[in-house]
Design a protein that fits this description.
The structure holds two protein chains of two kinds.
Chain A lengths: L13 H16 L2 H15 L1 H16 L1 H6 L4 H15 L2 H28 L3 H4 L6
Chain B lengths: L1 H4 L4 H15 L2 H14 L2 H23 L4 H15 L2 H28 L3 H5 L6
Helix pairs in contact in B: 3-6, 4-5
Classes of the chains: A mainly alpha, B mainly alpha.
Chain lengths: 132, 128
């Protein structure tokens, strides 16, 4: 990885900025957090019990989508959905995956905050999404 | 910066610093910095922009409270026209849009390589 820096008065060429973006992506992809998520994803895909629990929860969510959006679930529907959610979350492969995802998210938030600090501009907000 | 990058591994911290410094020195960012400086150094333009932002906020609040009137909207429109006629403010807005577009391109480059939306992962949720 080539580390390229510029001084305050220079203008960085587009090619150099793109190269540092690629280096940054490579550093992220090589991080233990990223590797752990890749492994957790592969394990989850090979775990049929975890996949079935996920599908059962997602199907129920889809079936109840309209009522969920209105916040009008009956207590039976609420109980059933919660049981399916717990069955899904209690799968070891799912727990490992969610934990790995949370750690990668934390890493990206820290790197994003650092980028925003350097450029004095909110990097993540500039890239859309935002809120509400 | 030490407090932010020291939670990152050395490799990621170095790559973040290099990207951050180069982005800060990129042409869209330099134009934005210059436009921001020109705006903040001009008392008339800066105060007009602050009044406009403040009025927008007040009107959003009135809308949610149901106390928004046509007179309020007319005042905002008048202020908006003044903003649109102000060269320094419009240059600043355009520079801001160009930075947004540029950062989206950079994010796309990173996201393609890592196979996930970097900015989406970096966004701290929970604002609503």
């Amino acid at each position: 990885m080539t580390t390229l820096y510029v001084n305050e008065l220079e203008i960085a060429s587009p090619a150099v900025v793109r190269q540092t973006a690629r280096d940054f992506a490579a550093a992220l992809a090589a991080s233990p957090e990223f590797q752990a998520l890749e492994e957790a994803t592969a394990t989850l895909q090979e775990d049929s019990a975890a996949r079935q629990a996920m599908l059962a929860y997602q199907e129920k969510q889809r079936a109840l989508q309209g009522v969920l959006m209105l916040g009008a679930l009956s207590s039976e529907e609420q109980t059933e959905l919660e049981q399916l959610r717990q069955a899904y979350l209690s799968q070891p492969a799912v727990a490992t995956y969610l934990n790995a995802e949370a750690k990668l998210r934390t890493l990206c938030q820290q790197a994003g905050a650092a980028l925003s600090h350097y450029i004095d501009f909110d990097f993540a907000a500039a890239c859309g999404g935002g809120c509400c | 910066m030490t407090t932010i990058t020291n939670v990152l591994s050395m490799e990621v911290a170095q790559a973040t610093e290099a990207l951050g410094q180069n982005l800060a020195a990129s042409e869209p960012m330099r134009r934005y910095q210059a436009a921001e400086q020109a705006l903040t150094e001009n008392e008339e333009a800066y105060s007009l922009l602050r009044r406009f932002a403040q009025q927008q906020g007040e009107l959003r609040q009135r809308q949610s409270q149901g106390t928004l009137t046509q007179a309020h909207l007319a005042d905002l429109r008048e202020l908006q026209e003044q903003v649109q006629q102000n060269h320094l403010i419009m240059t600043y807005f355009r520079a801001q849009e160009q930075v947004n577009a540029y950062l989206q391109e950079i994010n796309q480059e990173i996201s393609t390589l890592i196979g996930a939306d970097f900015a989406g992962l970096a966004r701290v949720s929970g604002c609503c």
